[in-house]
Amino acid sequence: MTNAATLGAPALPENPATGHAPSHALIKPGYHPRLTNEDLAPLRHQTWGQYNIFAFWMSDVHSVGGYITAGSLFALGLSSWQVLVALLVGICIVQFFCNLVAKPSQMTGTPYPVICRASFGVLGANIPAIIRGLIAVAWYGIQTYLASAAFMVVALHFFPHWAPYADVAQHGFAGLSTLGWVAFMVMWVLQAIVFWHGMESIRKFIDWAGPAVYVVMGLLCGWLVWKAGWSNINMNLGGVKFEGWDAVPVMLSAIALVVSYFSGPMLNFGDFSRYAKKFDAVKKGNFWGLPVNFLFFSLLTVITTAATLPVFGELITDPVHTVSKIDSTTAVVLGALTFMVATIGINIVANFVSPAFDFSNVAPQHISWRTGGMIAAVGSIFITPWNLYNNPEVIHYTLDVLGSFIGPLFGILIADYYLVRKQHVDVDALYSMDPRGAYWYTNGYNRKAVWAMVPGALVPMLCVFVPTLHGAANYAWFIGTAVGFVAYALLNKNRR
Predict the structure, then answer these.
(1) Which end of the chain is more exposed for a tag (fewer CB within 10 A), N or C?
(2) How many CA atoms lie within 13 A of 278 on its CB side?
(3) Which among 344, 26, 377 has a CA at the least distance from the CA of 194?
């Protein structure tokens, strides 16, 4: 196997923007400009350790969305031990697949859209890149909107007379209040600043953001338990409704929910694993960041959520709402800022870095990594994510259709790397437009990968739209992955 970190290092061409050779990228003279820039090229040095991967998952898990998702599992009518089993099984499945998708990028030092060139062709890789990029744009806008809610809590706490400007009926535009626009754009700019400083700044941000959220969540949980009294807290948030075999289908749905929640960052996890020193560091970071971290975070979440009932007289699943109910300026500010930081963390790692690489891959000489990220950020404004989020039916169908493509993309990538190519990648060929190159195919597109995507995406979409099949919609990712994997393997059975 060819490892980018150990490839020979010929003299690098000068970067016209800076006038000197880049220090982090390994660009060979034969790499085609249409396929190469400093951000997409194999890394010269891979420096991340297991803590950096662990911190990545902390930032990915510790968000308002993650809080609500974990808490919702306890409201499905299952007992605590049943939810615990579902959480562990679901997150272990995520860990297993993350290890699979991490290896090709870590070994080659290349991001997700580049490693996809092996299966889709050097130009065909734009298909999975654009699909993943569009999904990230939608979620980037929604997460920014959720984070802006925490900013509004702080603003209204100190300036209650601004309340009319928080009412879209009195002062609003395009479905969002004036204060909502201010809050959204503040969060938008803060995230852009962190992103603009590059991956090293992002690494430093996520290294401390995840632990910081734990500290504040621990304080919030401890205060609520102290106020409620442990004996008054019921861990079965929705009441136990399913026992014995009747609980199995619900537990399977809970497992599928956990896997689906992580399906986006799981697909493009190679964008981060490429920075790891060794694959062993990735595996250890995934172990501590996924099963261990997610289980602890989930328990912290459900205790906090359960304690809101005896303390406030209502069950509150939104942590921002919980913080806003506390009669303490310090607590409100600290809590709101924490969840703002948490959401910035997941937004950058899951929905900013990904489209930055994806859109850059479309036209590397014209779209840099930073430009690709800003395209996603600007696009997230124009889709007015608050209108999507406030209309669950629209967002359900929009993201389910896009999400139906995540499964087959994952299945094709895994089948190609492990089954067809036996974990061998010609790194130089990933950047070659030579018709004799290993990944050129016909006109740069591997038709077999495209054909494998057709049933892989069509079957889960039928589950979403056909009422009689809607019961299988929760398993769309698994179905798409399996169909994409099998279809690609069968189409390439003579190439193994």
Answers:
(1) C
(2) 4
(3) 344
Q: Which helix (H) or strand (E) holds 278?
A: none
Report pLDDT for 248.
Answer: 84
End-to-end Cα separation, the chain, in angstroms: 16
Task: Output the pLDDT for position 238.
Answer: 65
Q: Are 38 and 44 in contact (CB under 8 A)?
A: no
The residue among 76 and 156 whose pLDDT is bigger is 156
Q: What is the distance between the alpha carbons of residues 349 and 268, in angstroms, rounded to a whole number?
A: 10
Which residue, 253, 296, 332, 339, is CA-closest to 72? 253
Beta bridge partners of 48: 276
- Phi-psi region for residue 175, left (φ > 0), alpha (ψ -120 to 50) or beta? left
pLDDT surpassing 90 at residue 138: no
- Residue 412 has phi, psi (to 5 degrees) of -65, -45
pLDDT tens readout for residues 11-51: 334 443 333 334 466 788 889 999 999 889 999 889 999 99
If you write DSSP's letter for every residue of 337-389 in order, what string do you get? HHHHHHHHHHHHHHHTHHHHHHHHHHSTTT--HHHHHHHHHHHHHHT-HHHHH
Q: What is the rounded distance in angstroms from the CA atom of residue 275 to the CA atom of residue 45?
A: 8
Q: Which helix (H) or strand (E) holds 435?
A: none
Map tokens 């007379």 to a residue. 161
Describe the crossing of helices 126-158 and 392-403 by its angle, rounded to 10 degrees.
150
Q: Quick check: helix, strand or coil at residue 48?
A: strand
| Residue 74 near residue 309 (C-beta atoms within 8 A) | no
Distance CA 157, CA 327 (A): 10
Query: Two tokens at 483?
Result: 């169909």
Boundaries of every domain in the chain? 4-491
Q: What share of the chain in percent tops pLDDT 70?
A: 90
**For the whole prediction, is pTM greater than 0.70?**
yes
Three-point CA angle 370, 371, 375, nearest 5°: 120
Q: Which residue bears the tokens 């069509």?
A: 458
Q: How far apart are CA 34 and CA 301, in angstroms?
A: 47
User: What is Dmax (Cα atoms) for the chain?
Assistant: 71
Locate 349 and state its tokens: 């790692």
Q: What is the CATH number of domain 4-491?
A: 1.10.4160.10
